[in-house]
Amino acid sequence: MLRFESVTHVFPDGTRANHKIAFDVPRGQFCVLLGPSGAGKSTLLNTVNGLILPTEGKVVLDGEPVTSSNLAEIRRRIGMIHQQLHLVPRLSVLHNVLSGLLPVTPTWKAMLKLFPIDQQRRACQLLEEVEMEEKQLYRRASELSGGQQQRVAIARAFINDPDVVLADEPVASLDPTVSRHVLRLLRAASRQRDTTVLCSLHQVEFAIEFADRIVAFRSGEVVFDDLPSALTSDVLQHIYGGQEGDLVGAETLVEPKAEDKARANGRVPTPAE
Ligand code: ADP
Ligand code: MG
Q1: Which residues line ligand 1 (CB under 6 A)?
Q2: Burial letters for 129-153: b for 16+ Cβ neighbours within 10 Å, e otherwise?
Q3: Nearest CA among 144, 214, 221, 155 for reference residue 182
Protein backbone atom coordinates (compact mmCIF):
# COMPACT_ATOMS: atom_id res chain seq x y z
CA MET A 1 0.00 0.00 0.00
CA LEU A 2 1.08 3.53 -0.79
CA ARG A 3 0.35 6.08 1.90
CA PHE A 4 0.56 9.86 1.92
CA GLU A 5 0.85 11.08 5.50
CA SER A 6 -0.02 14.75 5.66
CA VAL A 7 2.31 15.62 2.79
CA THR A 8 3.02 19.31 2.41
CA HIS A 9 5.49 20.73 -0.05
CA VAL A 10 6.55 24.33 -0.27
CA PHE A 11 9.10 25.22 -2.97
CA PRO A 12 12.01 27.47 -2.01
CA ASP A 13 10.29 30.44 -3.67
CA GLY A 14 7.39 30.02 -1.26
CA THR A 15 4.94 28.30 -3.64
CA ARG A 16 2.87 25.83 -1.69
CA ALA A 17 2.30 22.99 -4.17
CA ASN A 18 0.85 20.36 -1.80
CA HIS A 19 -0.93 20.97 1.47
CA LYS A 20 -1.57 18.23 4.03
CA ILE A 21 -2.25 15.52 1.48
CA ALA A 22 -3.37 12.37 3.26
CA PHE A 23 -4.72 9.28 1.56
CA ASP A 24 -3.90 5.61 1.02
CA VAL A 25 -3.74 3.82 -2.30
CA PRO A 26 -4.34 0.09 -1.91
CA ARG A 27 -2.32 -2.38 -3.94
CA GLY A 28 -3.52 -2.75 -7.51
CA GLN A 29 -5.68 0.35 -7.59
CA PHE A 30 -5.77 2.54 -10.70
CA CYS A 31 -5.93 5.88 -8.95
CA VAL A 32 -6.26 9.04 -11.01
CA LEU A 33 -5.02 12.39 -9.71
CA LEU A 34 -7.28 14.90 -11.39
CA GLY A 35 -7.04 18.65 -11.45
CA PRO A 36 -6.20 21.74 -13.44
CA SER A 37 -2.70 22.73 -14.34
CA GLY A 38 -0.81 23.93 -11.26
CA ALA A 39 -3.02 21.99 -8.82
CA GLY A 40 -0.06 20.02 -7.46
CA LYS A 41 -0.37 16.65 -9.23
CA SER A 42 3.20 16.41 -10.53
CA THR A 43 4.65 17.55 -7.24
CA LEU A 44 2.81 14.80 -5.40
CA LEU A 45 3.87 12.15 -7.94
CA ASN A 46 7.46 13.28 -7.52
CA THR A 47 7.30 12.74 -3.77
CA VAL A 48 6.68 9.03 -4.39
CA ASN A 49 9.96 8.42 -6.20
CA GLY A 50 11.79 10.89 -4.00
CA LEU A 51 12.50 13.44 -6.74
CA ILE A 52 10.89 15.78 -4.26
CA LEU A 53 11.24 15.23 -0.53
CA PRO A 54 8.25 16.97 1.05
CA THR A 55 8.85 19.83 3.43
CA GLU A 56 6.42 18.19 5.89
CA GLY A 57 4.82 14.79 6.23
CA LYS A 58 5.94 11.63 4.49
CA VAL A 59 5.24 9.11 1.77
CA VAL A 60 5.26 5.48 2.87
CA LEU A 61 5.50 2.58 0.44
CA ASP A 62 4.56 -0.79 1.96
CA GLY A 63 5.54 0.41 5.41
CA GLU A 64 8.80 2.00 4.30
CA PRO A 65 9.05 5.79 4.33
CA VAL A 66 10.66 7.42 1.28
CA THR A 67 13.76 9.20 2.55
CA SER A 68 17.00 10.46 1.08
CA SER A 69 18.79 7.36 2.37
CA ASN A 70 16.69 4.70 0.64
CA LEU A 71 16.01 6.35 -2.71
CA ALA A 72 17.81 3.77 -4.83
CA GLU A 73 15.89 0.94 -3.25
CA ILE A 74 12.55 2.79 -3.50
CA ARG A 75 13.10 3.72 -7.14
CA ARG A 76 13.76 0.12 -8.04
CA ARG A 77 10.17 -0.60 -6.99
CA ILE A 78 8.69 2.21 -9.05
CA GLY A 79 8.03 2.53 -12.78
CA MET A 80 7.61 5.93 -14.35
CA ILE A 81 5.78 7.16 -17.44
CA HIS A 82 6.26 10.80 -18.38
CA GLN A 83 4.24 13.12 -20.54
CA GLN A 84 7.32 13.84 -22.61
CA LEU A 85 8.01 10.17 -23.28
CA HIS A 86 11.72 10.22 -22.37
CA LEU A 87 12.56 7.42 -24.77
CA VAL A 88 16.03 7.37 -26.26
CA PRO A 89 15.32 8.29 -29.90
CA ARG A 90 18.31 6.49 -31.44
CA LEU A 91 17.74 3.24 -29.60
CA SER A 92 15.46 0.47 -30.77
CA VAL A 93 12.06 -0.15 -29.25
CA LEU A 94 13.34 -3.29 -27.53
CA HIS A 95 16.43 -1.57 -26.15
CA ASN A 96 14.34 1.31 -24.83
CA VAL A 97 12.23 -1.13 -22.84
CA LEU A 98 15.32 -2.91 -21.55
CA SER A 99 16.78 0.43 -20.50
CA GLY A 100 14.12 0.43 -17.79
CA LEU A 101 16.28 -2.22 -16.14
CA LEU A 102 19.25 0.12 -15.78
CA PRO A 103 18.87 0.60 -12.02
CA VAL A 104 19.42 -3.14 -11.62
CA THR A 105 21.80 -3.78 -14.51
CA PRO A 106 25.48 -2.78 -14.31
CA THR A 107 26.18 0.10 -16.68
CA TRP A 108 28.88 -1.74 -18.60
CA LYS A 109 26.49 -4.57 -19.34
CA ALA A 110 23.79 -2.16 -20.46
CA MET A 111 26.25 -0.37 -22.74
CA LEU A 112 27.15 -3.62 -24.38
CA LYS A 113 23.43 -4.46 -24.56
CA LEU A 114 24.14 -7.59 -22.53
CA PHE A 115 20.70 -8.09 -21.11
CA PRO A 116 20.03 -11.65 -19.96
CA ILE A 117 17.76 -13.67 -22.19
CA ASP A 118 14.95 -13.87 -19.61
CA GLN A 119 14.87 -10.08 -19.43
CA GLN A 120 14.75 -9.86 -23.20
CA ARG A 121 11.85 -12.31 -23.20
CA ARG A 122 10.08 -10.25 -20.60
CA ALA A 123 10.57 -7.07 -22.66
CA CYS A 124 9.14 -8.80 -25.73
CA GLN A 125 6.16 -10.05 -23.76
CA LEU A 126 5.43 -6.57 -22.42
CA LEU A 127 5.74 -5.10 -25.92
CA GLU A 128 3.27 -7.69 -27.16
CA GLU A 129 0.88 -6.73 -24.36
CA VAL A 130 0.97 -3.10 -25.42
CA GLU A 131 0.23 -4.28 -28.95
CA MET A 132 3.56 -3.51 -30.57
CA GLU A 133 4.15 -5.81 -33.52
CA GLU A 134 7.26 -7.93 -33.66
CA LYS A 135 8.54 -6.13 -36.74
CA GLN A 136 8.60 -2.88 -34.75
CA LEU A 137 10.92 -4.14 -32.03
CA TYR A 138 14.11 -3.15 -33.84
CA ARG A 139 12.85 0.17 -35.18
CA ARG A 140 14.27 3.30 -33.65
CA ALA A 141 12.01 4.97 -31.12
CA SER A 142 12.25 8.21 -33.11
CA GLU A 143 10.44 6.54 -36.02
CA LEU A 144 7.33 5.76 -33.98
CA SER A 145 4.13 7.77 -33.64
CA GLY A 146 3.37 9.48 -30.32
CA GLY A 147 0.92 6.75 -29.34
CA GLN A 148 3.38 3.98 -30.19
CA GLN A 149 6.11 5.73 -28.21
CA GLN A 150 3.83 6.00 -25.21
CA ARG A 151 3.02 2.28 -25.47
CA VAL A 152 6.76 1.55 -25.42
CA ALA A 153 7.04 3.80 -22.37
CA ILE A 154 4.37 1.67 -20.65
CA ALA A 155 6.29 -1.52 -21.41
CA ARG A 156 9.46 0.10 -20.03
CA ALA A 157 7.70 1.22 -16.86
CA PHE A 158 6.66 -2.38 -16.11
CA ILE A 159 9.94 -4.12 -17.01
CA ASN A 160 11.25 -4.10 -13.44
CA ASP A 161 8.04 -5.63 -12.08
CA PRO A 162 7.37 -2.48 -10.03
CA ASP A 163 5.00 -2.23 -7.07
CA VAL A 164 3.85 1.19 -8.24
CA VAL A 165 3.75 2.88 -11.63
CA LEU A 166 3.62 6.67 -11.69
CA ALA A 167 2.19 8.19 -14.86
CA ASP A 168 2.37 11.97 -15.12
CA GLU A 169 -0.13 13.14 -17.75
CA PRO A 170 0.73 10.15 -19.94
CA VAL A 171 -1.71 11.12 -22.69
CA ALA A 172 -1.44 14.90 -22.61
CA SER A 173 0.03 15.14 -26.10
CA LEU A 174 -2.10 12.48 -27.81
CA ASP A 175 -5.45 12.74 -29.59
CA PRO A 176 -8.52 11.29 -27.81
CA THR A 177 -8.70 7.97 -29.67
CA VAL A 178 -5.02 7.22 -29.15
CA SER A 179 -5.26 8.44 -25.53
CA ARG A 180 -8.02 5.93 -24.81
CA HIS A 181 -6.01 3.14 -26.36
CA VAL A 182 -2.94 4.03 -24.29
CA LEU A 183 -4.93 4.33 -21.05
CA ARG A 184 -6.68 1.01 -21.75
CA LEU A 185 -3.32 -0.72 -22.19
CA LEU A 186 -1.89 0.93 -19.10
CA ARG A 187 -4.84 -0.23 -17.03
CA ALA A 188 -4.65 -3.74 -18.49
CA ALA A 189 -0.93 -3.99 -17.65
CA SER A 190 -1.67 -2.93 -14.08
CA ARG A 191 -4.59 -5.36 -13.70
CA GLN A 192 -2.49 -8.21 -15.07
CA ARG A 193 0.14 -7.74 -12.32
CA ASP A 194 -1.86 -6.14 -9.54
CA THR A 195 0.39 -3.08 -9.88
CA THR A 196 -0.74 0.14 -8.25
CA VAL A 197 -1.00 3.00 -10.75
CA LEU A 198 -1.02 6.64 -9.78
CA CYS A 199 -1.89 8.54 -12.92
CA SER A 200 -2.30 12.29 -13.20
CA LEU A 201 -4.75 13.56 -15.79
CA HIS A 202 -6.39 16.86 -16.51
CA GLN A 203 -9.09 15.32 -18.75
CA VAL A 204 -12.21 14.69 -16.71
CA GLU A 205 -13.76 12.25 -19.17
CA PHE A 206 -10.69 9.99 -19.19
CA ALA A 207 -10.56 10.03 -15.41
CA ILE A 208 -14.19 8.92 -15.23
CA GLU A 209 -13.69 6.26 -17.86
CA PHE A 210 -10.52 4.64 -16.54
CA ALA A 211 -10.09 5.32 -12.83
CA ASP A 212 -10.98 2.95 -10.01
CA ARG A 213 -10.86 6.04 -7.87
CA ILE A 214 -10.35 9.75 -8.44
CA VAL A 215 -8.47 12.05 -6.11
CA ALA A 216 -9.00 15.61 -7.29
CA PHE A 217 -6.81 18.57 -6.46
CA ARG A 218 -7.24 22.27 -6.40
CA SER A 219 -4.50 24.67 -5.33
CA GLY A 220 -2.47 21.88 -3.76
CA GLU A 221 -5.30 20.43 -1.68
CA VAL A 222 -7.46 17.36 -2.11
CA VAL A 223 -11.02 18.50 -2.78
CA PHE A 224 -12.55 15.19 -3.84
CA ASP A 225 -11.67 11.55 -3.18
CA ASP A 226 -14.20 8.98 -4.32
CA LEU A 227 -15.42 6.68 -7.06
CA PRO A 228 -15.67 8.20 -10.54
CA SER A 229 -19.47 7.86 -10.37
CA ALA A 230 -19.55 10.37 -7.49
CA LEU A 231 -17.94 13.11 -9.58
CA THR A 232 -20.90 15.43 -10.13
CA SER A 233 -20.94 18.70 -12.07
CA ASP A 234 -21.02 20.56 -8.74
CA VAL A 235 -17.79 18.86 -7.72
CA LEU A 236 -16.27 19.65 -11.11
CA GLN A 237 -17.25 23.27 -10.74
CA HIS A 238 -15.49 23.27 -7.40
CA ILE A 239 -12.35 21.65 -8.81
CA TYR A 240 -12.08 23.80 -11.92
CA GLY A 241 -14.19 26.81 -11.03
CA GLY A 242 -12.71 30.21 -10.45
CA GLN A 243 -9.23 29.38 -11.64
CA GLU A 244 -8.15 31.44 -14.54
CA GLY A 245 -7.31 29.44 -17.61
CA ASP A 246 -8.45 26.16 -16.17
CA LEU A 247 -12.11 26.52 -17.05
CA VAL A 248 -11.16 26.21 -20.68
CA GLY A 249 -9.90 22.71 -20.04
CA ALA A 250 -12.84 21.77 -17.86
CA GLU A 251 -15.42 22.94 -20.38
CA THR A 252 -13.76 21.10 -23.20
CA LEU A 253 -13.65 17.97 -21.17
CA VAL A 254 -17.08 17.95 -19.63
CA GLU A 255 -18.53 18.54 -23.07
CA PRO A 256 -16.01 17.24 -25.61
CA LYS A 257 -15.72 19.10 -28.89
CA ALA A 258 -17.74 17.56 -31.74
CA GLU A 259 -14.45 16.92 -33.52
CA ASP A 260 -13.07 14.98 -30.58
CA LYS A 261 -16.28 13.02 -30.15
CA ALA A 262 -16.15 11.99 -33.79
CA ARG A 263 -12.57 10.77 -33.38
CA ALA A 264 -13.43 9.03 -30.14
CA ASN A 265 -16.14 7.14 -32.02
CA GLY A 266 -13.65 6.14 -34.66
CA ARG A 267 -14.93 8.58 -37.30
CA VAL A 268 -12.98 11.15 -39.25
CA PRO A 269 -14.54 14.49 -38.26
CA THR A 270 -16.53 16.30 -40.97
CA PRO A 271 -15.52 19.91 -41.78
CA ALA A 272 -18.57 21.14 -39.82
CA GLU A 273 -17.22 19.43 -36.72
P1 ADP B 1 0.29 20.13 -11.80
O2 ADP B 1 1.16 18.96 -12.08
O3 ADP B 1 -1.02 19.79 -11.19
O4 ADP B 1 0.13 21.01 -13.01
P5 ADP B 1 2.54 21.08 -10.23
O6 ADP B 1 2.73 20.08 -9.15
O7 ADP B 1 3.46 21.02 -11.39
O8 ADP B 1 1.01 21.05 -10.70
O9 ADP B 1 2.67 22.53 -9.61
C10 ADP B 1 2.02 22.91 -8.41
C11 ADP B 1 2.41 24.33 -8.08
O12 ADP B 1 3.80 24.38 -7.78
C13 ADP B 1 2.20 25.31 -9.22
O14 ADP B 1 1.83 26.54 -8.66
C15 ADP B 1 3.57 25.40 -9.86
O16 ADP B 1 3.74 26.63 -10.50
C17 ADP B 1 4.46 25.27 -8.65
N18 ADP B 1 5.77 24.70 -8.95
C19 ADP B 1 6.06 23.54 -9.60
N20 ADP B 1 7.38 23.32 -9.65
C21 ADP B 1 7.96 24.36 -9.03
C22 ADP B 1 9.31 24.73 -8.74
N23 ADP B 1 10.32 23.94 -9.11
N24 ADP B 1 9.53 25.89 -8.07
C25 ADP B 1 8.52 26.67 -7.70
N26 ADP B 1 7.21 26.39 -7.93
C27 ADP B 1 6.94 25.26 -8.57
MG1 MG C 1 1.92 18.31 -13.88
Answers
A1: 11, 13, 15, 17, 35, 37-43
A2: bbebeeebbebebeebeebbbbbbb
A3: 155
Look at the chain and report how many structural domains it folds into.
Answer: 2
Question: How much is the average pLDDT of 38-52?
Answer: 96
Q: Is 245 exposed, middle or buried (0-12, 13-18, 19+ CB in 10 A)?
A: exposed
Closest residue to atom 23 of ligand 1, CA basis: 11
Ligand that comes closest to the CA of residue 82: 2
Tens digits of residue pLDDT in 139-155: 999 999 999 999 999 99
CA distance 87 to 177: 22
Q: Which of 4, 32, 42, 215 to mutate to test the pocket of ligand 1 (most atoms within 8 A of CB)?
A: 42
CATH number of the CATH domain containing 205: 3.40.50.300
User: Are 224 and 115 in a shared domain?
Assistant: no
Atom of ligand 1 nearest to the CA of 42: 2
pLDDT, one tens digit per residue, over 225-262 is 999 999 988 889 988 885 533 433 433 334 445 554 45
Give residue 272 CA to ligand 2 midpoint distance, Å: 33
Containing structural domain, residue 119: 86-161
DSSP code of residue 173 = T
Q: Which atom of ligand 1 is nearest to the CA of 44?
A: 6
> d(Cα 131, Cα 210) in Å, to the nearest integer?
19
